[in-house]
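Revision sheet: structure tokens.
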Amino acid sequence: MVRARCVGATLSPITATAVCRGLVGNWIKYAAWEDKNQEYARARSVYERALDVEYRNVTLWLKYAEMEMRQKQVNHARNIWDRAVTILPRSNVFWQK
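Predicted:
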């Protein structure tokens, strides 16, 4: 059994992962808050940690790349797009951006 930090309960590893995945919106809000406060290194760190938890979330990849593009960090954004299409090659959303 695993103690899931995101819910504060003892759950099986599979259940804990499923519950934590539902909280991706909190990661995005936290990263956006850091971005708004011009803490770009922290925002990157938040996005990277969120991707460690849920790398299959398309919205997370999009928000991360869009943040880098807003900051004129072209190489960072390219690296994020490259990682996203490598990990999720069948997602059409990345190819439309």
